[in-house]
Amino acid sequence: MLTQYSFYLTTILVYGAVDAMACMALNVEFGFAGISNFGFIIFQSAGAYTAAILSMPRAASSNGGFQQYVLGWNLAWPLPWIGAAIVGGLLALPFVFLVGKRLRGDFAAVGLLVSAVLLNVLVKDYVPFLNGSAGISIVPAPLQSFWNPQGLAYQFAYGGVAIVLAIGVYFLIRRVTESPYGRSLRAMRDNDIVADSLGKDLRLQRTSMLVLGGAIAALSGAILVGFINLWAPGAWGYAETIVLFAAIIVGGAGNHKGAILGAILVPLSFEEITRFIPPLSNPALVPALQWVAIGLLIILFLWFRPDGILPERRRILSNRSGVAPVETVVEGQSDALIKLGNVDELNFRELLRLGEVTNDHRVILSTKGLTKSFNGVTVVSDVSIEVRQGRLTGMIGPNGAGKSTTLAMLAGTLASTSGQVFFEGADITSVSSHKRAQLGLVRTFQLASEFKKLTVLENLVSAIPRQPGDSFWGSMRGRRYWGAEDEANIERAEEILEGFGLTQYADTYAGALSGGQRRLVEIMRALLAQPKVLLLDEPMAGVHPNLAHKIGDQLTKMCDNGMTVLMVEHELSLMDAFCDPVIVLAEGQVLAEGTMAELRKRPEVVEAYLVG
Prior knowledge:
Rossmann fold; 10% strand
């Protein structure tokens, strides 16, 4: 009896390690990078098949040739497991187009789900590839020629190796996600369009997480097939991915320990609990009830505890030890109480790395015949403007005039139908938005666009370009490589945060701030992106008028220090006080340009916009 329980324990160890690795891999894709990979089971299955066919002998001469499969290289352990991880990573590459900029979110999730179903059908129907629906059996256990796989010592050793690999996976993904690169991944998860406008390469970030998750999933599949010695299409239906998603939802998305806890509570526990249910007249009833229970579990957690048992932890970056972050902010009232701190004392040239710039007022940004149409309706027509270096240029016009659309085309977040955009004399019309941001063309958005699940300080630091740890390989080099630079960047962010009077909110989630405070965070974040040209889309919306004028003063000083600003704003007092020149758009076309005093004298401008 004791021996029987011992073998049962080894099975629990192996399955627990496999499920934990799979959940951590999916969590790094979904919980950190925001990729809803409903085709995740593809990668675990690919690892299982790869390990099997790399460890088995040639099909024609093995076991009477009763099954068909490719390769059959009969490689020694651990080569099949290593090969499985490599294949899992490589298999992720064709799926990158499904999670790129063109297809993302729910559409990418559906695309990945359909891919999983199609690949399952392919493996079932094309028998010579992987033996069809019958699957591959009698897969050699690792080192079986030296050790009896049925022995208790071997089983415990196998479980120990699986646990060690799961621990290694935990520290591997933690190294990636607790770096500046992990911060960028969570920013992309919260708002990918804004992350893109700050210079983050979304395609590269999603590729790296798909490859990493795919390699880990494939390794988990290799461990499992080496233990159970068989694999078939019935083991990797799309429903298996739903179980893993349920585990992450229950445990806590964005938390590695939560993913491990979810793996223990959902796939492992549900599988084992069914063993203790007495036999029923209908053998299909137990699996059906199991799926009902999993569905109810997902619904209950999404309703009552959407962050899971172990929610994603807050990253405290500030040096204010012992000071609890502000949790809630009163909308409206708090905006009126905002007072800029020592912003007049800030050295923006040093903080923003502006360098020595000569304000020669040359044309730094311009357009020629810029046009945008949606479904045959033209919203911006033949717009040709010039923005001069070192000036605060304004843009006004009635609602629907095309102001935000023009800014979006300048930043590259919206492709133009025709026309050209020039930056520092070069044609950047075909340059992607994240590369424009890297060149120094940075924008804000008409609606508040903070990264809600990042703290205020994380929002600011995430925007700083060229951080040594803000890449996959940089994160892999560890804190010794990027730690000192990251601390310096945090200090810069804290200094500008103090200048804007929001130090007490440094470790508060940005999504918990009031409207005016979120606007300030967006402005500070855009400044720390070190722009040469800053495109502001109604930055003072929701900001108290007194505070708006103080911010306008600082923008003017930044322009004196070499920055260039193009600002869309409805508040004409700000245009009067700070902007020269001002561009007027009406019905998608440039109506006039000049100082506000000059524009007030022009009848067509007064009639189109200034009346009322």
